[in-house]
Write a structure and sequence with these properties.
Growth Hormone, Chain: A, 17 helices, 0% strand
């Protein structure tokens, strides 16, 4: 039987989870107001504002892709504590910059910096891997998923409420949350990576493309990396067309769309917090991945086929079981690399997510546009979600044939 973690370790893990939650909260709190600011700066030209927001989203994910390996490698060299704290303070100061931005140019610079500082999520994952025994890592990564889910649920709601007073107020609140958490971390966050286990910083290892060399070293790592890419790509359908789809197909007002997203976030938090650990204990990591991917494919099919909005609502809890996949996959991966490369591994994982973030929005919005356009040969508003289901099915097949574990 595994001994419970000491109180100091539990406090440190709690801080890391709070950091992830606040990072997600700070990022999502501006979702309702960033388009309003861009629209204001674009002289209320909706088409121009949409183009600017597309560039903003691509730039954010590009910064994640470029800097995640560097930040992961820095945490392997300097330790997790300084990288996590620098991220908190950097993100806080960045939101101050965005709150004061007089025009699109400075706001764009702020989004670039946000993409860099938010890349510390890879270090949070490495911290969990440092302080957790292998059998507990999936549960730890599940808690990170909970933090993401809670932040995603609370952020847009709080941002909408604060934005009703002033569209810049959410930026100030996001800045305050990040800075306060950074100050708190100065007192409670110990270092998790001993000096003896730190690695030298080689610039060839922080090349964002070279970071995939780590995954290519082992067939299992490469297979899981492919699964995570397909998984993240399919998830982009929710981020890219959920609002458009709900508005077009079900005539949902903004409040209903927000409620649906919040409901999905709650279900995802429950999956990460309550289901990952028993699932891994009962099935093992690989079978847990298979269950999550199968549920994700079925959930996307149900959502795509649902002409009745009630059926769409019922499909969301099934879809949220995709939250089983990431923690189980990352737990396997941490067992395949030495302690000196955990940060680099998490950086490579973040790069995978960023590449999916670069490819997904254009793919799914284009499919949706074709499926509902006036010249569509077959009117099919659920087409993006059928595509997402097919991608999840491909990830499931990849897991079956390319992923093996001792507890499969």
């Amino acid at each position: 039987m595994t001994e419970p973690a000491p109180p100091s370790q539990r406090a440190a893990i709690s801080f890391v989870l709070v950091t992830v939650l606040l990072d997600m909260l700070a990022m999502s709190i501006i979702i309702p107001v960033l388009p309003r600011l861009v629209l204001q700066f674009s002289l209320n030209d909706t088409a121009a504002a949409a183009g600017v927001l597309g560039v903003f989203g691509t730039a954010f994910n590009l910064m994640q892709f470029l800097f995640s390996p560097l930040i992961g490698a820095l945490s392997d060299r300097l330790g997790r504590r300084p990288v996590i704290l620098m991220s908190n303070f950097g993100l806080g100061l960045d939101y101050v910059l965005m709150a004061l931005a007089p025009g699109i140019a400075l706001l764009f610079v702020g989004r670039l910096i946000s993409g860099i500082t938010a890349a510390s999520h890879s270090t949070a994952g490495a911290y969990i891997a440092d302080v957790s025994p292998p059998e507990r890592r999936a549960a730890g990564f599940g808690l990170i998923s909970v933090a993401f889910g809670v932040g995603f649920v609370l952020g847009p709601a709080l941002g909408g409420l604060l934005g009703g007073f002033d569209p810049r107020l959410p930026f100030w609140v996001a800045a305050g949350l990040s800075l306060v958490n950074g100050v708190y971390g100065l007192f409670v966050l110990p270092e998790s990576l001993p000096r003896a286990r730190r690695s030298k910083l080689a610039w060839r290892r922080v090349n964002p493309l070279a970071s995939f060399v780590l995954l290519a070293r082992q067939r299992r790592l490469l297979g899981i990396g492919a699964v995570l890419f397909l998984f993240a790509l399919a998830q982009q359908s929710l981020l890219s067309v959920f609002v458009l789809h709900g508005t077009y197909r079900y005539h949902w007002p903004a409040s209903t769309v927000g409620l649906a997203l919040a409901g999905f976030g709650v279900c995802a938090a429950v999956t990460g917090g309550l289901l990952v650990r028993p699932a891994v204990r009962w099935f093992g990591e690989r079978r847990t991945m298979l269950v999550g991917l199968a549920c994700a494919a079925l959930g996307f099919i149900a959502f795509a086929a649902a002409d009745d909005p009630l059926l769409a609502w019922l499909g969301l809890p099934v879809l949220s079981l995709m939250g089983l996949v990431g923690p189980a996959a990352r737990a396997i991966m941490t067992q395949l690399v030495p302690p000196t490369e955990q940060g680099r591994l998490q950086g490579a994982n973040s790069s995978i997510m960023s590449v999916a973030g670069l490819a997904g929005p254009g793919l799914f919005t284009a499919v949706f546009a074709v499926a509902v356009g006036n010249n569509a040969a077959w009117h099919l508003p659920g087409a993006p979600y059928y595509l997402a289901a097919a991608i999840m099915a491909a990830a499931l097949l990849t897991t079956l044939f390319a992923v093996r574990t001792g507890r499969s």
